[in-house]
Amino acid sequence: MLEKSISLMRATPPHLPELSRALQTSWKELQDPKCDLAWEFRQHRYSGTEEDRLAAVDWIGTRIEPAPSSDRLMVTNGTMNSILLLSSTIVGAGNVLLVEELTFPQVYTLAELVGVRVVGVRIDGRGIVPEDFERKCRELSPKAIYLNCSCHSPTAYVAPMERRLEIVEVARRYGVQIFEDEAQVHYLENAPPSFASLSPESTWYMMGLSKYLSLGVRMAYVVAPTISKLQELMSRIRPLSSWHPAPLVAVVITRWMQLGIAQNLLLLGKAEVQRRQAAVVEVLGDIPGFRTSGGIHFWLQCPQGTNSEDFSAALGEAGVTVRPSKLYSGPKAPSIEGIRPGVGDPADVAETQSAADIIRSVYERYV
């Protein structure tokens, strides 16, 4: 085992020196006597300011076409908070929220906090299986389905256009709302259209910033299907302030977007991610069940006859820590056994490749 293990546990953007410089510059600007933030700290930031929302529309860019008006959008303090809001208001206690059978683990915790039952839908390499989605709709009458299929976590697939259209057709037939989470889509080249573009009347679109800028950036954007639906939601949660973005974070991030700093950080991060993914592909690309989509993690199915917990434990003993698919299956055992290593935590490309070499060596013990 290595003296120091390499962590591939987190799906985080790589550290960039430019992020440190951007923060240092912002702190200096905030010290200027002309920059008075006191008013910002005296206000609730309900749904974000108009500047926040306009910056959000620009950041989302062509992922929603036609572009939404800013009054269809609200700013929250992160994707988890957004999921909690939608689960409690759109789904509601006692009702069913469908998810991909392997999904963002916190969805189970957040939904169950508000009494929502979470049920997995079978997936393949192209996304949720339409036939199983329809069967669950008939049997369970779900209110919504949560989808994270533009660089799926954990299996890294990107659902193609044809599969998306099949999902939309089933959702429309049964009146199911779509919660779309595009946490990593800006890393992809030529991503298929979003559900918010294909089915705007029923899609609640989410895009957090932590996977693009830094995990500590607790801000996310939510685009409602219509202005009236957003107003209806807001009327229910307006007395609560727990979902607002922190004023200081919102001021800095919105300013970065207005000046192009955030966009530059994304471009630099994307280039670094591509270098790291290329190193991983060179080492692991010929293994059956390996998949990378260009995002900040990749997927590797376990060797035949091995479960994800045992395989990840063996990797940990060899010096690389990863997340097993068991973490993504809720209370059930996963029907797909694999690991989801992230590429953002290693110090550089060389350390990323060293981790991939170890994964390869451990994998080959089983075959």
List key phrases describing it.
Aspartate Aminotransferase, domain 2; alpha/beta; 15 strands; 2 domains; 42% helix; 13 helices; 367 residues; 4-stranded antiparallel β-sheet; globular; 7-stranded mixed β-sheet; Aspartate Aminotransferase, domain 1
Layout of helices and strands, plus pairs?
Elements: E1 6-7, H1 17-30, H2 38-41, H3 50-60, E2 73-76, H4 79-91, E3 96-100, H5 106-113, E4 117-121, E5 123-124, E6 127-128, H6 130-140, E7 144-147, H7 161-174, E8 177-181, H8 195-198, E9 203-208, E10 220-223, H9 227-237, H10 247-259, H11 261-284, E11 290-292, E12 298-301, H12 308-318, E13 320-321, E14 323-324, E15 338-340, H13 349-365
Parallel strand pairs: 1-13, 3-4, 3-7, 7-8, 8-9
Antiparallel strand pairs: 2-10, 5-6, 9-10, 11-12, 12-15, 14-15
Helix pairs in contact: 3-10, 4-5, 6-7, 11-13, 12-13
CATH superfamily of the largest domain: Type I PLP-dependent aspartate aminotransferase-like (Major domain)
Quick one: CATH class of the largest domain?
Answer: Alpha Beta
Distance between the termini: 21 Å
| Structural Rg | 21 Å
As for the number of domains, it is: 2
Strand content: 5-15%
In total, the number of strands is 15
Structure description:
With 367 residues, this protein is α/β, with parallel strands linked by helices. The protein has two domains: 6-16 and 262-365, Aspartate Aminotransferase, domain 1, CATH 3.90.1150; 27-261, Type I PLP-dependent aspartate aminotransferase-like (Major domain) (Aspartate Aminotransferase, domain 2, 3-Layer(aba) Sandwich), CATH 3.40.640. Helices cover 42% and strands 14% of the residues. It contains 13 helices and 15 strands. The protein has helices at residues 17-30, 38-41, 50-60, 79-91, 106-113, 130-140, 161-174, 195-198, 227-237, 247-259, 261-284, 308-318, 349-365, and strands at 6-7, 73-76, 96-100, 117-121, 123-124, 127-128, 144-147, 177-181, 203-208, 220-223, 290-292, 298-301, 320-321, 323-324, 338-340. It has a seven-stranded mixed sheet with strand order 2-10-9-8-7-3-4, sandwiched between helices. Strands 11-12-15-14 form a four-stranded antiparallel sheet. It has a two-stranded parallel ribbon with strand order 1-13. Strand 3 (96-100), helix 5 (106-113) and strand 4 (117-121) form a beta-alpha-beta unit. Helix 3 packs across helix 10 (247-259), helix 6 packs parallel to helix 7 and helix 11 (261-284) packs parallel to helix 13 (349-365). The longest helix has 24 residues, at 261-284. The chain is globular. The two termini are 21 Å apart. The mean pLDDT is 94.
